[in-house]
Amino acid sequence: MAKIVCVLYDDPVNGMPKQYARDSLPEITRYPDGQTTPTPKAIDFTPGHLLGCVSGELGLRKYLESKDHQLVVTSSKDGADSVLDRELHDAEIVISQPFWPAYMTAERIAKAPKLKMIVTAGIGSDHTDLQAAMDRGITVTEVTYCNSNSVAEHVVMTTLALVRNYIPSHNIANEGGWNIADCVERSYDVEGMHVGTVAAGRIGLRVLRLLKPFDMKLHYLDRHRLPESVERELNLTYHTSLESLTRVCDVVTLNCPLHPETEHMINAATLKNFKRGAYLINTARGKLCDRDAIVDALKSGQLAGYGGDVWFPQPAPADHPWRTMPHQGMTPHISGTSLSAQARYAAGTREILECYFEGRPIRDEYLIVQGGKLAGVGAHSYSAGNATKGSEEAARYKRA
Ligand code: NDP
């Protein structure tokens, strides 16, 4: 019997929905590169229902209890007295989602002598100290591709919202106003603008494809170059440095993982190389950016807008300056946890658990760390080390 600790975000303030806005989800069996969506032997949930919150339990309880495993589900994850800390001593598997991450620091890993696997029900395992996991031989997995397209849609939405000044204009309508000049004094078209993605992986490439029909000029920076056929199809300009990309782009979007090589890549010095009035969209990880440098750049006008859904730490304390800085389109971390995405990552988590308990190999594309080293997708996209420093700040959050 194994103990599985699953950290999920809180239920809706008014309880679980009695009815959903829609009755079904479109059926998607493959991602754009041909990879199949998750293939567990079975699922015990209704796709389209809330699965990522505590009562949703990622639809795992029936399956795990039928195999005599113990499942503990909690949202209490920060501070020394958290349920997560109390349950770690005999946990074999910890599952959490990046939206409400269980920061698996070296200290926590040291408190969990039986821990064998850490599962990210989503994409992005930077909330785990990967170095500590490697040192202890713990497997780290995530559900690659499960919400990449969901995030790309959020990037497009935020780009349009910022450039067209949608959010302030919507607020004016809500407040009973009609002053059009106030709405449009910061409103532009994206047509003809240059947009560049830092990383053209699953999300970054999807963003480029989605923005192409707006007649934007497309740029990218990545460690590996895309196939020539893709560059030609999308008329892409490839950059080998952040400086070269930011000097020409009106919109910059960050789509790389957070790891020691990318932490704080956007800072006061690199922001000086942006065009004045650029828009920066970050749905990748908050810590890719220096928090205060972003606030300063918005105040000075170096950036015309900043948007996204990722913060550091998460949840962000009430006084986090990104909540109140000017010209921003921030949301809590939601882009990868639409009901559509939840169905995929709940199924992917089930697939990973089935493989683990049945002694079958976990798909290479789901592996980040295995056998003491970066593995699978992790070996391609991450660098060794730790990016969790400062996560204890999350304990300062109080539910509004
Ligand atoms: P992929 O692994 O498909 O893409 C990541 C890309 O980042 C790869 O192309 C990789 O390049 C590139 N990369 C890594 N390091 C660098 C670097 N130093 N400079 C430039 N490029 C780099 O992942 P996804 O596109 O699916 O996801 C990307 C990230 O988005 C995730 O790691 C996660 O942090 C975030 N995310 C956010 C979500 C949300 O809800 N907001 C949900 C899902 C993901 P190469 O392959 O050439 O090494």
UniProtKB/TrEMBL annotation:
Signal peptide residues on this chain, from the entry's feature table: none
Q: Which UniProt keywords apply?
A: Cytoplasm, NAD, Oxidoreductase
GO CC, sorted alphabetically, is: cytoplasm
**Which molecular function GO terms apply here?**
formate dehydrogenase (NAD+) activity; NAD binding; oxidoreductase activity, acting on the CH-OH group of donors, NAD or NADP as acceptor
Q: Which residues bind NAD(+)?
A: 148, 202-203, 222, 257-261, 283, 309, 333-336, 381
Q: What class of enzyme is it?
A: oxidoreductase
The UniProt entry, under CDD domains, shows: FDH
Fetch the PROSITE patterns from UniProt.
D_2_HYDROXYACID_DH_3 (PS00671)
Matching entries from Gene3D superfamilies are given as: NAD(P)-binding Rossmann-like Domain
- Residues covered by the D-isomer specific 2-hydroxyacid dehydrogenase catalytic domain: 62-362
Q: Which residues form the D-isomer specific 2-hydroxyacid dehydrogenase NAD-binding domain?
A: 157-335
Instruction: List site positions: Important for catalytic activity.
Output: R285, H333
Q: Where in the cell is it found?
A: Cytoplasm
The enzyme's E.C. designation? 1.17.1.9
Kindly list the positions annotated as binding substrate: I123, N147
Q: Which HAMAP family match?
A: Formate_dehydrogenase (MF_03210)
Listed under subunit, the entry gives: Homodimer.
Family stated for the protein in its record: Belongs to the D-isomer specific 2-hydroxyacid dehydrogenase family. FDH subfamily.
Q: What function is annotated for this protein?
A: Catalyzes the NAD(+)-dependent oxidation of formate to carbon dioxide. Formate oxidation is the final step in the methanol oxidation pathway in methylotrophic microorganisms. Has a role in the detoxification of exogenous formate in non-methylotrophic organisms.
Protein name (database record): Formate dehydrogenase
